[in-house]
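FAQ: What does a ligand-bound record look like?

Like this one, built around guanosine-5'-monophosphate:
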Amino acid sequence: MTIFEKIIAREIPADIVHEDALCLAFRDIQPHAPSHLLVIPKKAIPRIAEAAAEDKELLGHLFLVASRVAEKEGIAKSGYRIVVNCGADGGETVPHLHIHILGGRPLAWPPG
Ligand code: 5GP
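The answer part, i.e. the structure of the complex:
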């Protein structure tokens, strides 16, 4: 069971900002920006590379929720970045699909 599944099951605490039947959004424990939130599906998809065609609607839902969460967080006007790390070179550390939402300061590009 990954740490994110434990958060979904309420076995470990998290600062949850949104929950619905399909997903959960909460604050990253080690924020890299004034606002750093994660949106995760309740379904245990390890990473985007392993999403299936049947996950199409769920994936769309996660992006829409990310947009709503950013709006609620007050960073929609100033702008923000959505990141999905996949695999070792992508910087993935938790093998449960998650969308990072980063905002509240200007973000450099390209990423390191
Ligand atoms: P990744 O590196 O896999 O793209 O992102 C995983 C993210 O999960 C990291 O930004 C890390 O700080 C965050 N994270 C890891 N463990 C926990 C935890 O127990 N609680 C919360 N809220 N975030 C976590």
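Follow-up question: can I read anything off the structure? Yes, for example: The pocket of guanosine-5'-monophosphate is lined by residues 3, 14, 26-30, 85, 91-94, 98 (CB under 6 Å).
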